[in-house]
Amino acid sequence: MQRYVAFFASMNVGGNRLTMAELREALEREELEDIETVVASGNVLFSYEDRPTDGLSEMLAFIVQDRFRFETFAAVRNAAEVRSAIEDNPFYGEGEDNLVHTLFLEGEVDPSGFDALLYDHNGRGKGARGPERIAKGPRCLYIDYAGGVGSSKLTGDFIERRMQMRGTARNMRSLQRILDKMEE
């Protein structure tokens, strides 16, 4: 059995209310094992047969849609991928751990989408929208929200429209706590 984490998007926002106990129960019915929620809502550790994480992402999103009637995206990663999301983030160690994020995407970064994101974020030549720094990684973006996440104009919706794919972000502090739990 392989240990995974599912980073759920859009959970417990808007009308998508769901307790972690309800989610755990639904996942246990689908033969996932050792289910545990970590840090905050939307982070679920579990064990399952070793398989590509893309298929698991689709399976978990389907379970939530089928059982709870709302659409979500689940970025599933194994411990090596979570470690990479921390260690390969070029802003890790430079910015504050609560402001440096890895945005997990549902697919590989398309260079044209990434270029559109940078172009629009940099103000289309008219001045930057904010102080954030952005870099691309494997099925993720690395972001330093140097001016603060809450006041940033670099929102999830802004990124998803330019990248034309869904994503969900976690900061370095949360990722380290999740990795520590995965490696216990």
TrEMBL record:
Gene3D superfamilies: SP0830-like domains (3.30.70.1280). This is DUF1697 domain-containing protein. PANTHER family: BLL4334 PROTEIN, DUF1697 DOMAIN-CONTAINING PROTEIN. InterPro entries: DUF1697 (IPR012545). It comes from Aurantiacibacter marinus.
